[in-house]
């Protein structure tokens, strides 16, 4: 365990040297974003694993679909010379809900990338909303996908790809994956263009993914050094406003050039991220520790039980009896205390933890104790 911890942190410590990043890896262009679509539809062709009669909306959806295609589901009842009882029976039969064992009501979702044009295809995800057991072998019937404004932006249809499978017999069942959700690669066709302010904007706004005043200032400075003073200005820790060319083709080339520029981002905020469920602790390169003394020990209590036979002496009255005895042992390893000097860096922290023989879970406890003692100069994030 000591070697694993040492190698892990040596890799992080080696990366603490100064480095440059491309602007495209640090920022997003405001307005250049994806959009979410959602729709309600039906999956047909299931092998008896559909909603059945448990979900009435499935039968109602099928009735509405067939009516739109010109198919009369209920159909008129011809009287001929039938008596009233037979007419009533025929009417009730015509109004019975449709069999939907091979049909499932589903929600269809998709994500439209930025600048996607009508006619292009996108992937869609399908999930059941009823009691269907599996979508394997199903086919999605043409479904409208709408945006947040209620407008139809795409149409989805096609055969599902389902990786999950379920099987059962004699009261036992096994399920691998999730058979009630599937996917159709390139299953939707865009029918409407999603407008963006890219073409008409006189300024681009670059949004830094991790808010930092130093990074925003470095990006604005690099752009001004190449294109002239006043071309870019940092609005706050996140946004940088950049003057845009008037021609559309010039805008594309201009942004392409900016994205490939390299800048030295500001030092990240000192942060320690801890996941107590998995025993994971991640320390970034900016973490420093004040003066502290660290000692880690594990107290182990061991109880051993053993049986003995108690037998009376010669010519004595009494019976032979079984007696249970216990021996309790307390062990505590003699771990040395490690002293941390003020301002030590990441490598020193891990070397000290390795010296006291701490496991990953013990490392988390030590970091939490250092933070409470006021020696850990970092933000402690527990997930």
Give an overview in words:
The protein is α+β, with helices and mostly antiparallel strands. 23% of the residues lie in helices and 34% in strands. It has helices at 2-14, 56-68, 84-94, 213-227, 248-259, 346-355, 360-373, and strands at residues 21-22, 27-29, 35-44, 103-112, 121-128, 139-146, 152-159, 165-169, 172-176, 181-190, 203-208, 232-234, 239-243, 262-263, 271-275, 280-283, 288-289, 292-294, 300-310, 321-331, 338-340, 376-377, 379-382. Helix 1 (2-14) packs antiparallel against helix 6. The longest helix is centred in the middle third of the chain and has 15 residues, at 213-227. Residues 1-17, 77-82 and 89-94 have low confidence and may be disordered.
């Amino acid at each position: 365990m000591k070697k694993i911890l040492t190698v892990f942190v040596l890799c992080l410590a080696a990366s603490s040297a100064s480095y440059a990043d491309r602007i495209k890896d640090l920022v997003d262009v405001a307005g250049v974003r994806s959009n979410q679509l959602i729709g309600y539809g039906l999956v047909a062709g299931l092998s008896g694993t559909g909603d059945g009669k448990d979900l009435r909306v499935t039968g109602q959806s099928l009735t509405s679909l067939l009516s739109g295609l010109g198919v009369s589901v209920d159909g008129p009842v011809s009287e001929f010379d039938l008596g009233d009882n037979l007419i009533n029976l025929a009417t009730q039969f015509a109004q019975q809900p449709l069999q939907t064992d091979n049909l499932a009501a589903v929600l269809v979702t998709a994500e439209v990338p930025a600048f996607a044009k009508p006619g292009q295809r996108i992937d869609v995800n399908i999930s059941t909303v009823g009691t269907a057991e599996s979508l394997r072998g199903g086919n999605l019937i043409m479904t409208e996908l709408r945006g947040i404004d209620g407008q139809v932006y795409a149409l989805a249809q096609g055969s599902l790809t389902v990786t999950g499978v379920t099987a059962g017999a004699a009261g036992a069942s096994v399920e691998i994956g999730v058979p009630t959700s599937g996917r159709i690669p390139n299953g939707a066709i865009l029918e409407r263009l999603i407008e963006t302010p890219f073409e008409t904007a006189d300024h681009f706004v670059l949004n830094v993914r991790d808010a930092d005043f130093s990074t925003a200032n470095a990006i604005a400075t690099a752009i001004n050094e190449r294109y002239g003073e006043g071309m870019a200005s940092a609005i706050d820790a996140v946004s940088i406003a950049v003057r845009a060319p008037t021609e559309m083709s010039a805008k594309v080339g201009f942004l392409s050039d900016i994205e490939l520029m390299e800048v030295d981002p500001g030092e990240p905020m000192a942060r320690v991220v801890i996941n107590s469920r998995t025993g994971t602790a991640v320390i970034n390169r900016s973490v420093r520790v004040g003066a502290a003394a660290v000692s880690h020990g594990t107290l182990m209590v061991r109880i051993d039980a053993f049986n003995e036979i108690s037998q009376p002496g010669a010519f004595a009255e009494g019976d032979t009896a079984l007696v249970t005895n216990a021996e309790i042992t307390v062990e505590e390893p003699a771990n040395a205390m490690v002293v941390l000097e003020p301002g030590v860096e990441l490598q020193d922290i891990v070397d000290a933890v390795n010296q006291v023989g701490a496991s990953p879970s013990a490392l988390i406890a030590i970091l939490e104790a250092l933070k409470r003692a006021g020696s850990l100069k970092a933000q402690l994030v527990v997930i």
